[in-house]
């Protein structure tokens, strides 16, 4: 079954964006995954197609209305068990483990917030899982949704030219990825580490693992502390 992605947004023209190109775009053409961009504004009922209102209790900005968004979700998710994500800076950080869990399913529904945020009642009533792609604020959830979909689609079976490519990437083993090199052998006085051209595959794997451990310890001590001893040793 092909992976189905539905994105609820006020700017459906943003999609599929970069996902229409390269490996993801080719996989879409082959029918390995599909994307449906749903215009939230289509579910407003007044003549002005209003989707937002002022915050209860006062304050700056506007809040996405629960009734409009709920109708959009209900229309998209009839008899649908796909996870429902809400892109939000206050959500749980996206991890490679969660990406793999989502990729193992039959699809995902992603709600892109705008303005000051989304009415809390619809988050609770429709079981939206708040997800963050980093400790920063974007103008809307669309770029974050593209990041989530990019991370998922690239690891769907058959999307990458070599499925082994995903096994040695950053975060897959709890560590950052090792450095990469390619020809020419010497460039601007810098040479490829001799071990990588030695032909000794066991030594090469050992070097790559040691470099991954070193980089993780230096750059992401938070990950290093969480890594399993067998991953570090």
TrEMBL record:
InterPro entries: Alpha/beta_knot_MTases (IPR029028), tRNA_m1G_MeTrfase_C_sf (IPR023148), tRNA_m1G_MeTrfase_TrmD (IPR002649), tRNA_m1G_MTases_N (IPR029026), tRNA_MeTrfase_TRMD/TRM10 (IPR016009). Its main location: cytoplasm. S-adenosyl-L-methionine binds at residues 113, 133-138. It catalyses: guanosine(37) in tRNA + S-adenosyl-L-methionine = N(1)-methylguanosine(37) in tRNA + S-adenosyl-L-homocysteine + H(+). The keyword tRNA processing applies. Keywords: Cytoplasm, Methyltransferase, S-adenosyl-L-methionine, Transferase, tRNA processing. Residues 4-226 form the tRNA methyltransferase TRMD/TRM10-type domain. It comes from the Bacteria. Its EC number is 2.1.1.228. Specifically methylates guanosine-37 in various tRNAs. Belongs to the RNA methyltransferase TrmD family. This is tRNA (guanine-N(1)-)-methyltransferase. It comes from Rhizobium lentis. The lineage of its organism: Bacteria, Pseudomonadati, Pseudomonadota, Alphaproteobacteria, Hyphomicrobiales. The gene is trmD.
């Amino acid at each position: 079954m092909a992976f189905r992605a539905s994105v609820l947004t006020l700017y459906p023209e943003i999609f599929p964006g970069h996902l229409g190109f390269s490996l993801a775009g080719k996989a879409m053409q082959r029918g390995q995954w599909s994307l449906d961009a749903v215009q939230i504004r289509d579910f407003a009922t007044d003549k002005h197609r209003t989707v937002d209102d002022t915050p209860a209790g006062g304050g700056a900005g506007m809040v996405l209305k629960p009734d409009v968004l709920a109708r959009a979700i209900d229309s998209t998710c009839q008899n649908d068990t796909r996870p429902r994500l809400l892109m939000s800076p206050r959500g749980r950080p996206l991890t490679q483990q969660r990406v793999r869990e989502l990729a193992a399913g039959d699809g995902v529904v992603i709600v892109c917030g705008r303005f000051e945020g989304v009415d809390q009642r619809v988050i609770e009533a429709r079981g939206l899982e708040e997800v963050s792609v980093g400790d920063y604020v974007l103008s809307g959830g669309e770029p974050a949704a593209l990041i989530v979909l990019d991370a998922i689609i690239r690891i769907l079976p058959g999307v990458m030219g070599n499925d082994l490519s995903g096994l040695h990437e950053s975060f897959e083993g709890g560590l950052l990825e090792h450095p990469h090199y390619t020809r020419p052998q010497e460039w601007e006085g810098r040479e490829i580490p001799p071990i990588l051209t030695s032909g000794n595959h066991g030594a090469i794997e050992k070097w790559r693992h040691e470099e991954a451990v070193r980089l993780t310890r230096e750059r992401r001590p938070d990950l290093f502390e969480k890594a399993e001893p067998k991953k570090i040793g």
